[in-house]
Give the backbone structure.
Amino acid sequence: MNTAEQLEKFIDIMARFTVYTGKYLPDDVYAKLQDLREKEDAALATIVYDAMFEDLRLAHELDRPLCQDTGVIQYFVQVGSRFPLLDHIENALVEAVKKATRLGPLRHNAVEVFEEKNTGNNVGKRIPWIDWELVPDSDEATIYVYMAGGGCSLPGIARVLMPLEGYEGVVKLVFDQVTSYGINACPPLLIGIGIAGSVEVAAKLSKKALLRPIGSQNSNPRGAELEALIEAGLNAIKIGPGGLGGENSVMGVHIEEAARHPATIAAALSTGCWAHRRGVIKIKADMEYQIISHQGVVL
Ligand code: SF4
């Protein structure tokens, strides 16, 4: 396969995978929703969960996106230094989004700042947003697709805490924000928390925390303990599915951290909704692919 043929194949795979991510929840999210549904007794909460599963069934049956909100499309790329299309990935992902928008079809969601004009193809300045990690001595690319919906992005916040606020300040920020704005994000929520020395690092890590599989833990035992404590505390509020009350509030709490400045803690929150459209695909140098987030799927 020459470079042009590889490029065509890569764009086609990523377009079809982006469309697929918009129509089918990843396995871990689906399983967690089933788990939360089984724990519900409250009449209204069970109705809301059942409506979610009916929505998923209809999306499958009618071959349509599972939520009307395409979100702003983001790609988190872990690309090997020897991946053959390294120089072309950015343009290829832009073309993949345009193609996915036609194929889906996906609602047009990219609005240019200042012009206040919808571009009509989900592509705009710096959108799709692409986050890069270069993997040494590898010829593969692992790409996360994330559809950042309006509602589920709404509770997002990042702040540098005052020196004496400590880790308690991180917890307070999360609880204040979730109790004030969480219901806008179509609960049950996935909570991503970033802790770092400056606000942009914390913000980025809070989003990366949402990419972790539900049920995974922070690599540091204290981080894992804090995740469990925050999850228990948020569930005790009983926000319930759709914010209408129920046994639980969240699908999980994930924290990612970077070493911080001695005097400051920067904390950030990103939230995912019940329709957490996160797909993970690995593409090899020969353009063969493996979908990691949705087992057994062939595009
Ligand atoms: S928060 Fe999620 S489920 Fe609700 S409208 Fe937005 S993308 Fe859809």
